[in-house]
Design brief:
The chain is of the alpha/beta class. The chain has a single domain, classed as TIM Barrel. The chain is about 30% helix and about 20% strand. The protein has an 8-stranded parallel beta sheet. Strand 9, helix 4 and strand 10 form a beta-alpha-beta unit. Helix 2 packs parallel to helix 3, helix 4 packs parallel to helix 5 and helix 5 packs across helix 6. The two termini are about 30 Å apart. The chain binds flavin mononucleotide (FMN).
């Protein structure tokens, strides 16, 4: 008998612990050319903002030695077009849909989250708090525990149905303080991590490679950083609060995903690896199942936080 791989995140029942990472598979249609989305535990969309955004100037993506740096700038179709043109297709795919939500004011987060919460076919909302807060001089919401409490608390009041997930930025001094703030304000699950701030320079031109100057580093280079943050948040706050963690950062294989589960994650997301192989996320799901069978586990939950230390 094969091991059970289904997991639950808040009110989202997932067939397996693997989802897409926001911004790396659009709204799903391109990915569906390679496999049926229902092979995944959940599909996570690109960030949605109130109005359409064209994003930053190009170049806005550059490959680095063990990953890539992007400054896409939240390019997206906007709330109205998402609800009208993208969501109806997505909800027919037989996979839970999690919508990544972004904003530059608390009002915008609340407006987008409550409209999505009221729409049929949105199972979860993932708040991307790595966005500049225009009312706080551009400081990202996710870099201050006070701002996290304010934005998550306001969205919590507005969201009734969808599971509320908060995605943390690693660009902070103490990720556990940010996780605690998100949980106390009502997060039902935490995603960690978003990209690490980075700069790529061309010595020949003596110019930054990205038009935006800096961007966010993703891919294999960030996996050890992400694992440490999952481990720290699990052990200091999330386990005790009973809040599941979604681990993301550099996952390419089933073994990578298993490492995140051992560190304390309940589910994982696959991002940059999808650019190398569009089927990466389904291969990761298959890899987790094989690992469980080969190592005599009956249920994927037996791995969560199972890291042997000491
Ligand atoms: C091109 C690109 C676009 C992204 N867009 C978003 C986004 O819209 N919202 C978000 O929360 N994270 C976004 N991310 C971050 C990823 O979801 C993920 O947290 C990060 O890339 C680390 O995972 P990975 O190493 O598997 O890519 C983006 C990442 C990339 C590479």
């Amino acid at each position: 008998m094969s091991a059970a791989v289904n997991v639950t995140l808040g009110r989202i029942a997932m067939r397996n612990p693997v989802m897409t990472a926001s911004g790396t598979s659009g709204y799903g249609q391109e990915l569906a050319e390679f496999f049926e989305l229902k092979a995944l535990g959940a599909f996570v969309t690109k960030a949605i903002t109130r109005a359409e955004r064209l994003g930053n100037e190009t170049p806005r993506l550059v490959e680095t030695r063990a990953g890539m740096v992007n400054a896409i700038g939240l390019a997206n179709v906007g709330l109205e077009v998402f609800l009208k043109d993208k969501l109806p297709w997505l909800r027919e795919q037989g996979v839970p849909v999690i919508v990544n939500v972004a904003g530059s004011t608390i009002d915008e987060y609340v407006a987008v989250a409550s409209a999505l919460d009221g729409a049929e076919g949105v199972d979860g909302l993932e708040l991307n708090i790595s966005c500049p807060n225009v009312k706080a001089g551009g400081l990202e919401f996710g870099r201050s525990d006070k701002a996290i409490r304010d934005v998550v608390g306001a969205v919590r009041q507005a969201v009734k149905r969808a599971t509320l997930i908060v995605k943390l930025t690693p660009n902070v001094t103490d990720i556990t303080a940010m996780a605690r703030a998100a949980i106390e304000a009502g997060a039902e699950a935490l995603t960690l991590i978003n990209t690490l701030s980075g700069l790529v320079i061309n010595a020949r031109t003596r110019r930054p490679v990205l038009a935006n100057v800096f961007g966010g580093l993703s891919g294999p280079a960030i996996k050890p950083v992400a694992l440490k943050m999952v481990y720290d948040v699990y052990r200091t706050v999330a386990r005790e609060a009973g809040v599941p963690i979604i681990g993301v950062g550099g996952i390419q294989t089933g073994a990578d995903a298993v490492e995140f589960l051992l560190a304390g994650a309940t589910a994982v997301q696959v991002g940059t690896a999808t650019f190398v192989d569009p089927r990466a996320s389904v291969d990761v799901a298959a890899g987790i199942a094989s690992y469980l069978d080969e190592n005599g586990f009956e249920n994927v939950s037996e791995l969560i936080g199972g890291l042997r230390v000491g």
